[in-house]
Each structure stands twice: as structure tokens, then as C-alpha cells.
Amino acid sequence: MAERVSAEQGHADLGKVDRIAKIWGTRTPYGREERWPVRVDQVLAEGVEESEVERWVQSACVLCSNGCGIDIAVKDGTMVGVRGRAADRVNHGRLGPKGLFASWQAMNSPDRLTTPMIRQDGELVPCDWDTAMERIVQRSRHLLQTKGPLSHGFYTSGQLFLEEYYAQAIVGKAGIGTPHMDGNTRLCTATAATALKESFGSDGQPGSYRDIDACDAMFLFGHNMAETQTVLWARVLDRLAGPDKPRLVCVDPRDTDVARHAEVHLALKPGTNLALMHGLVRELFVNGWIDEDYIRRHTMNVEELRSTVEPWTPQEVARTCGVDAQDVRRAAEIFGTSERVLSTVLQGFYQSSQATASSCAVNNLHLLRGLIGKPGSGILQMNGQPTAQNNRECGADGDLSGFRNWENPQHVQELAQLWNVDPATIPHWAPPTHAMQIFRYVEQGSIQFLWVSATNPVVSLPELPRIRDILASRGLFLVVQDLYLTETAQYADVVLPAAGWGEKTGTFTNVDRTVHLSQKAVDPPGQARSDLETFIDYSRRMGFTQLDGSPLLDWQGPEEAFEAWKLCTRGRPCDYSALSYQALRGGSGVPWPCTEQQPGGTERLYTDGVFNTDPDYCETYGHDLLTGGTVGPQAYKAMNPAGRAIFKTAPYHPTHETPDTGYPFRYTTGRTAYHFHTRTKTGRSPQLNAAAPQAWVEISAVDAATGGLNEGDIVSVESRRGHITAALRISDVREGTIFAPFHYGYWDEGGTPATEHRAANELTLTEWDPVSKQPVLKNAAVRLRKVADAEGPALAPTTTASHPTTHSHHAARSRRVVPTTGGPAALASEEFPPAAPSDDPASKEQP
Amino acid sequence: MNLSTYLSLLEKSESTLAESFRQVAEGHGHEPDVHFICQTLAKQCDEHQRALQPIVRRYGQGDVDDEPERLHADGLSETRKGPLGLLRDLQDLYLLASLVDITWTMVKQAGQGLRDEELLDVVRACEEETEKQLKWLSTRMKQAAPQALLIAE
After folding, report:
1. Given CB atoms, is B40 within the 8 Å cutoff of chain A?
2. What is the reported pTM?
């Protein structure tokens, strides 16, 4: 990549860069344990000069899970641009294309929802808040009286603020008393949370982004960081461009930018992650690359792990995974012999077969070498969404608030005291109902009231033909709370317009536990309201009370909610007790736990090798990873974990749906750098939409040649459940595999699918991991047939994993594909100020 | 020696359980977790029977007339329908798996008395899986019970 080098210290270089063409911006190389240089990225609306900006309002970005500190430019009561916060520990001033171009522009979109709507004679018609809320409350009350709390389900998001999740959790658990609460976090981070709970006793990210600065080797497991967290990848690229660069290993069936920079690329068959992981773990045992002393003092169950991985020789891995045995040995050697190793894990593992077992295997690799809780040695079980962590903490996903254990009566009692309610109200008699089961209960007619907030299941859940039928069922009362009239909102009985980012104040927490304050910069459009106001309003109208008769939720605003949350977390792993809105204003975000003893926050967990597995403290007693059966309190206490981490594993089994003669290809889905989720925001940014305007499917050059297919041909991809039609990109995806981006739905194509389907989830399978309950979105058997000749190349980005094939002997089949650029509209400035970021928790100034 | 009777009982009950897991997997295909996990567990039961073969060869087949069945655990002839039907079918599986579980325990007692290491190795490998089958069944039933008993049609 021909890019400028960083400016000299002290010299402020102001340049503009096409950030559609250069996703990761300009390199600022740095060496091991040096401070990642600051680069301040900024973009303003066309025609707005910096001098015209009236105020900059502090926030953080919500267009991925990275959590970049961001300032919002305001002029005439409108958001007119953004700038990265130089002082923030997460991004040191940088922003990615989605933050630059979607965060504020999407909010200014003319098709925002501005009034509530109710269904009248089959049509959604605008109404006022009283009418909409009364309709909800009437139905809700009626069902509670006649059917009880199990008639209610809530399906929320990874994109609300902490205060909103906590309100929703209290309403659901202590007001209604339903276990049927989950979020789309089930699709993105459920496995991250579960793997951490199973290995370490509770949720909570062990590592820190600063481990990138200090590591000697990096392993990215099913993590296309280059496209999912572009600013984090910029940090890695800067280390790779500097001295003492880390060795890089990539596990991914696609030719991502990560793969292209990797020393070893294990392009395994989708669905075989666990077999590969067993092979890597076995190599550590066989070669003695383990820390016996650490294992003895800080872990348990090592013998079970050793016997489970025993059959997985490199040759056996090669046979099952379709990778080179020598590459397995090389990767294991890098893990086994590098001084400091950082691993990251994402959807390639989380949305695949045996997700929890594979992700726990990453934890196992680190535990075997004692590479945890030390600078440069860490684990980042990544999140997919910006505020997913808060959903997990607050329990709007069904878990008990504050990482409490639903099987521990003392934990239930603590919550009942905090909320001043009868503990019997709080559902704790069975595991919380996961998303796919909630939809199953809707399908069976036992959940008749479903409240969906800030998510779009009609595009994002597996097997869409089924999901559409479920949401269209006559007995269901559907409430949808969103910024736009999404595909899902079109099925609603009541639509509630939400205030979004920059229009409300609240906090949220990123992958490495960094808490940010996001402040209100402008008023929401029309009658749109924050989700917090809506939940409090619902609770008040329903008459939910505490034991003394006072309102269940009596908060006057988000800051009061945050103060209540601090009480809920005191003494728990996610301790916010020394944080405040005031402490979060100015400077950098702060990583929890943040306590009186650690007022500046905590960089890494488990530095002392003591884990959260004590039976009185842990968030779960654990599960059998093959079936998901619970271990239970008695057996867990008998194990006596006593603060030791637990090696959890399961035998490998092949995916349940495998290619056959009728459906010969393996189908996998994923992301592109230019879009987020179902494009509700990114599709409304002209720059991002132009970069990836239309769905496509990818096939390898070899498979294209076999099938006589050319770049841009219109193809139909079919599974046993549905079909999609899209233009073909001949890329460097693994042979035998077909990839489709999952972002594309129908809201900008007339709302609902007619005959031409394009949503990747038309084809996927209703199946989930037995422990994390995360749907297996990355495996299906499909067939492909040509529908029409190409009229031009597929409109898939060339800057990402969807780049045209680089195998020259096949390149003739690819038509001349125009490189993805953004032109003048995509220019953003980069500034290289001399100031160092104040990102060290220990040195953070206290207010 | 009556151990052969118990080995036969174990073989037969593992075989009945395998068949019943398959029956439930097919009958409740709309519950994907039940569908796939029951298939996996059926294969475990097949493996248990295979692992028992060398032991059975040494101690011989028990004569069915030695101790005829009084309580008949014939397995599921067909699956039920709906949420309550799912719960009842899982509960039947639980009963069959419990029979397998306690039979392994009795065979283990005999193995210890005989100091038969080969037999004890087989027990060790299999009884833990049976225990996990029971845990899964109980977990899944606890999840399903409130909805099935209180609100489902």
C-alpha cells in the first residue's frame, strides 16, 4: 500500500484522504511498547467550515464494537460532522469510514420516524404518544391478567445505552417477571460472553487494546478485524509497519486483509474450527509449550483437555479442515514460542458450529501457557455491536443484572433488595429464554406480546421465510421501537419513534471494557423520544411498583439511571462504583472495574491468576459444552474451583448440514467494511452506500471456471429453505465455499421481498450453539445456478475481502473491475498533532 | 455368576434409549436443538453398546428367562405433539436414561468386585456420558416446563 509516513513530531500535517479508498487511513508506524501515535480524523458536511462549527459535543462511535471516542460537530441545531478524540485510549483520534460517514449523516436522514404509529384497518397510521402507549398498555395488561408474564417477550439490541438496558431489565424482570428477554446480542456476542463465563467464571474481557502495542504475536480467530473494527486494525497495521512487528496468524476461509498480512493463513473449511483448535492445543502439549506451574496453580481439568485433543494430529486436522499440516505446526509453534501472544475471536467462531467449545479453546491456549493478565498477552473475545457489553451486564439479554448467577438464590435476593421487590417476581427458575426460543414461542402462539427495540430480525435472523411468517401471525401483538420504518417495523401493531445517537445522553462500554459518555448534541426529530423515556413511561402506565408502593422506575433521567446501576454493580466483576458522568467528561473513556481502590479503571483482568470461579461469586456454574446441560450448584461446588480457571472442551463433530450432491457448496455469510448490520444507518450514508450499493455472492476462481461462470453473472443461490439472486464476484474465497454479505434487506427495495430475494439469511439454517445459543449463521449447504449473463462486474468492494481474484491464470475470467473509491465526497482530514493521548488508567486525572 | 444378565440389560436399555433418542429427534424436528442433540446422543448410545461387546464376549449373554422383565421399558413407540408433548417425550427419555445410568452403576460395582480393569475402563468412558445425557434432558425440560405447563395451547 503506497501511503504517507507519519508526520514528524511537532509538525502538524493537515491532509485529506479518500477514506472509502483507504479504509484504514494513513500509517503511523510504532514499535513494541511505544505509544500508538495520535492521528485525528475529521469530516464535516459539504460546505461547512471548521470555523462555523458552534460546538463539539463529546460522544463515542456506535457503528461497531470498537468504541472510538468521537466529538460531534453541531451547527444550527444539526449534527454537521465528527472528529476523533485524540485523548481517547481506544482510538487516539482515529475514526473508521462508518464513524466518519454514517454516524451523523444517518441521523439527519429525511426518512426518520417522527411520530408514533398504530395499525388501523391493516395500515400503519401516525398518532400521538398517548394513543400509542395506551394501545400497548391495554394489550399488555389484558395478557398479564389472562395469560400471565410468560405471554410477554422482549427482543432488544446491542445499540441502546447502558441506562436503557438497565431500565428494560428491571421492567422485564421485576415489573412483568418474564424470562423471555434477549437481544440481537445473541447473534453477535453471546458466545463471547459464554466462553468467558465457562472458562473464567464470569463475563468480562481479560485483555486490553493496549495489548496490541505490546504483543509479539497475534492470532485472529474467525475475526476479519480489517472490516469489522477498522480502527483496531489500523492499530495492528501500524505495529506491522513498525520495528519489532508482531507475527500474525489468521484463521479465516476468506482472503481478508488480515489474511494478506498474516505469516500463516489457515483458510479452513467452514464448520471445522473446533478440529483445528484441538490440533493447536495438542501441539502445545506434545511440544511442551505449556507452563506446568501456572496450570497447577491456576487451572483445573487439564487432563480432560489433554485426552480430548489427543486424536487431533496435524495430519488429522489437515484432513478434516482442508488446511496444510505444516501450517498447523507453524501456527502452533508461533503460539507456543512467542513471548507475548494476543488472541482475538469473532463471528467466524461465534456464528459457526460448536461456537462455545471453539472459543473456549482459545482461552485454553492462553491458560496452558499462562499468557493472560500480562501486557501483550491477552484475549479479546470480541463483541459485534457498540453496546453489546452493556446488554450483557444489565441483563436485558435475560441474564441477571451485574453478572449475577440465576442459579444462586443469594444473587437473586440481592437484586430483589436493590429493586425493592419480591424475589419470587424475578424469573430465576430456569435459564433465560434465548432469542431463537422466544421466536419459537411466538410461532407456537404462547408469546403474544413481543416488543422489539433497535433491531431488525426480519433481515438478521436465520431462515427469513420462517421469521416473516412468525411476525405476520395473527395472534401476535408486535411493538417496534426504532429510528426508521425498518423491514421489521412494517409488521408492527405499534411503532415508536426513537431518539438516537447524538440526540440523547447515556453511557456505553466497548470490547475492552472502556466506558464512554455519549452526550446529547441536538434534539431528536419530531416526537421521537429516547428509549429510556419510553421504558419509564411504559412502567409508569403499567403501574409497576416497589414493595412500598412507590414507582418501580422513578428515574428522572439517564444520570439517575447510571447512579442506580453503580449500586447494582458494586462488588461485582463489572464494578462501575467509582465512575460518574462527571468523571467521564473530557479526556478518555475508562475501563471497568472502576472502584475506590482503582479510580482510574483497570487495564487487564486476572493479573494475579485468580479467576471469578468461586461458587458464591461466579456468574454461572457452567455447562457441558457438547449438549449445553447445566453442571448445577452441587456438582460445581464439589469441583471446588476456588478461583482457578476451568479448561472446558468438547469432542469435535461435523456440521449438521453438510454439502451433498443436491447442495454441493458450503455457504457462509459475513460483513463488509462499509456496512453495519442491516444497513439502516450505513445505507443512508451516500459515501458508504456508493461503496457497496448492492448485494453480491462470492465464489472462487476454480469453482467459477468449473461452472463456466464469469464475473458479474447473475446467479441464484438456493438452500433447502430459500433462495437469493445476486451478481457474482469471483474472489479468493476458499474453494467449495460461497460467501454472501448479510447486510442487505429490502427497506430500500420497496419494503418486502417480492420474487428477487437478496438477504443472505433467506438461506441460513435455524440452529444454534448448545451453550451460547448463538445461531449458526455461517454454515449451510447450497447450490448455485446462473440466471443471466453479466451486464458488468458485481458492485462488490475491491478494497476488502471481496476483492477480485488475484490468481492471474484465472483473472481472465474476471472482467475489468473498477477499484472502489469515494471521490471528493469521501475526503476526510487527518491531523498528526504532537500531543500524547492520556490513555493510561493509572495516570488519569480525577475530577 | 449373574453379571451376564446385567450386561444384557445394559445392552438392551442402551439400544432402547438410542432408538428413542432417534424417535424424538425425528418427531420434534421443529425444535432444532432437540433434533440435533438427540441425534448426537443416540450415537453415544450406539458407541456404548459397541464398547460393551468385548466384555459381553467374556462373560456371555444373559438368558432372558433368568430374570424376566416385570417393569417394561420398551422405549417410545411414537412421539407426541406440541409443547406439552415435547415435555412428556423428554421426560420419557429421562426415565430410559436413568435406567441406563443405574445399570452402569451396578455393572461398575461388579467390575470393582472382579477387579476387571477392562470392564472398569468401559464403565468410566460411558457412565460419564450417560450422566451428561441426563443433565441435558433435565436442563431442557426445566426450560420448557413453565411455558408448556402454564401457557401453551
Report:
1. yes
2. 0.95
Q: Chain B: give the shortest CA distance to residue A199, in Å.
A: 19
> For chain A, which residues lie within 8 Å of any Cβ of chain B, measuring from their own Cβ?
147-148, 150-151, 179, 429-431, 433, 436-437, 440-441, 444-446, 623-624, 626-632, 653, 656, 765-768, 770
The shortest C-alpha distance from A136 to chain B (Å) reads: 21
Give the domain extent around A564.
Answer: 117-189+387-498+527-591
Q: Is the CB of residue A434 less than 8 Å from the CB of residue A137?
A: no
Sheet holding A494-497, edge to edge: A123-126, A117-120, A494-497, A477-482, A449-453, A152-156, A181-183
Testing the interface with B: which of A406, A627, A657 to mutate, by most B Cβ within 10 A? Answer: A627
Distance CA A843, CA A111 (A): 45
A624:B146 CB<8 A: no
Helix (H) or strand (E) holding A44: strand A40-44
Q: Which residues pair with A739 in a beta bridge?
A: A668, A698
Residue A615 belongs to some domain of the structure? no
Reported as a pLDDT band with limits 50, 70 and 90, residue A4 is very low
Q: Is A449 left (phi over 0), alpha (psi -120 to 50) or beta?
A: beta
The CATH number assigned to the domain with range B3-60+81-150 reads: 1.20.1260
Residue A637: helix, strand or coil by DSSP? Answer: helix
Domain locations in chain B as residue ranges: 3-60+81-150
Mean pLDDT of A347-368: 98
User: Residue A839: what pLDDT?
Assistant: 54
- Within 10 A of A205 (CB to CB), how many other CB atoms are there? 26
Which of A179, A445, A627 lies at the smallest CB-CB distance from B37?
A: A627
Whether the CB of B53 is below 8 Å from some CB of chain A: the reply is no
In A, minimum Cα distance to B134 occurs at A629
Per the domain annotation, does A359 fall within a domain? yes
The CA-based angle A830-A833-A835, given to 5 degrees, is 140
* ipTM for this prediction: 0.94
> Distances in Å between the alpha carbon of B132 and those of A187, A271, A632?
27, 24, 12
